[in-house]
Globin (Microbacterium pullorum), 155 residues
Amino acid sequence: MTDAAPVSFYDEIGGHDTFVRLAAAFYRGVADDEVLRPMYPEDDLEPAARRLEMFLAQYWGGPTQYSQERGHPRLRMRHAAFHVNPDARDRWLAHMRVAVDELHLSPLHEATLWDYLERAAHAMVNTFEPTGIGPATAGRDASGISLVSRPPDHR
Ligand code: HEM
């Protein structure tokens, strides 16, 4: 068999079932996370788990259902409404770590998947403000200097 279709990473690690298990395990962690849980607008995390599962499956060469239902991923843009600071990122990654471990992949598959998830999570950070600091202090950097209005300059 020389002309067999190349096997996707999606298929190599077990296809649909693996991605469903990954997303389900991840959201079990999110459900108990005091910082991440309130970010999710819906009471039920099931639809969010399904979106993540469809996205990851598509990314790794599986069915393109995500784009059919949600359009272009534009993940940075879709996360802009959420306060994704380094703490949120690290929590996201910690739950993902547990979920990936539960899959018991081969070391190479595990490393490939994890490398991607880590890079993607770092790319999703959109603020360095600590959680809980809202619009009242928006526009100030860590030193407390206003970034939206300049002090009067005495020329
Ligand atoms: C870094 C920390 C992250 C936080 C705090 C975070 C949080 C969120 C929240 C609150 C939502 C909205 C719930 C929903 O409507 O599905 C969401 C959606 C989503 N996130 Fe994340 N996320 C993070 C990183 C990532 C990463 C690294 C990926 C991909 C590898 C990802 C993939 C998605 C997808 C596919 C959706 C659904 C987008 C849609 O179709 O509307 N997220 N995320």
